[in-house]
Amino acid sequence: MKLQNELGEIRISSDVFTAITGSAATNCYGVKGMAVRSKTDGLVHLLKRESMAKGVKVYYNEDGTVSIELHIIVENGVNLMAVCRSIMSEVRYVVSQTTGVEVASVDVCVDSMRF
Description:
By secondary structure, the chain is an alpha+beta fold. The protein has a single domain (13-114), classed as Cation efflux protein, cytoplasmic domain (Alpha-Beta Plaits, 2-Layer Sandwich), CATH 3.30.70. 29% of the residues lie in helices and 39% in strands. It has 2 helices and 7 strands; from the N terminus they run E-E-H-E-E-E-E-H-E. The strands form 2 sheets. Strands 3, 4, 5, 6 and 7 form a 5-stranded mixed beta sheet that branches. Strands 1-2 form a two-stranded antiparallel sheet. Strand 1 and strand 2 (8-11) form a beta hairpin. The longest helix is centred in the C-terminal third of the chain and has 20 residues, at 80-99. The radius of gyration is 15 Å and the shape is globular. It starts with a strand and ends with a strand. The relative contact order is 0.23.
């Protein structure tokens, strides 16, 4: 993503967005971690901290905003709506404060629940 200001141009890679998003999401209550669905066996796997970016997809919109899609694994017994709202709010806030880019939407996909 390119941001233009009076001093010049700033380029933010998608790796920055995924790292910030993954960190913000996993810090929320009830989130076990980021998830990825295996292409070989179709099962959902919990990602380690080093590879949590695989559970995040960032889409760049024409109007200079970003849309984010998260795939997560939650703890058993949590209120899914409350956890997802918390993640959406936290990710939107942290990404916009850190990068200065407005977040158009945050979609949270709960792929699995861990006991």
